[in-house]
């Protein structure tokens, strides 16, 4: 089944209806903070590994359960139990999905910022620059109106991210759009600037093949390249060099074999497999083959 994608933007979470609560003012403020927190941890996924080391499937059920506990804690306790709220929401409900320790640390830090006494004030800032402020106390309609005023383009600071994180996200989106557009181009044109596409790819494959270096041979290394230390263990830099040399030779071997197969496929001497077809298209579009 196709995965249902949620709309992007921190203003898409909305605010649920306000049930009766003995601490109405605090409940409204913390409800907004909770919804904002939910939006933040959802939207951090668009930054890839910069947002979360592991991609987590937080959903509306987590938000609904957290709202239930928020309502119950505020109704049953005379004072707002900040520690209990942070533990239940951060460690149990949302934290129960988190498997990476650094992700857990980041999630708890974000929650701590929104679940503290300062969040009850009208001048509380959800973004350091003040682009998103705490909504003034009022009916549900006023909160929805406040949400509509949130900027459409989310600044990385809202997600506790450096502004450079947005560059990576935008590059990913641009690459995806360009690759999609390229994939829609007709492939039956047969010629590129008057030259048959097969000839273009053949010449490019031959050019790359001629520029490939020879495999790295261990016996040709210098006398002190792979020396051992006094304790008999190999030098750490030598270990890294050995590993990279092996990987480089493997990559070189793949390039040599696939370039030869591609040229044979163009000449009709072998079958043009799916991987060779993708390689053909990449060469035609001046892309590095995947």
TrEMBL record:
GO biological process, one term: microtubule-based movement
Superkingdom in the source lineage: Eukaryota
CC terms in the record's Gene Ontology section: dynein complex
Domain Dynein heavy chain AAA lid: 27-165
Domain Dynein heavy chain C-terminal as annotated: residue spans: 172-290
InterPro entries the record matches: AAA_lid_11, AAA_lid_11_sf, DHC, Dynein_C
Molecular functions (GO terms): dynein intermediate chain binding; dynein light intermediate chain binding
UniProt-recorded name of the protein: Dynein heavy chain AAA lid domain-containing protein
Organism the protein comes from: Eutreptiella gymnastica
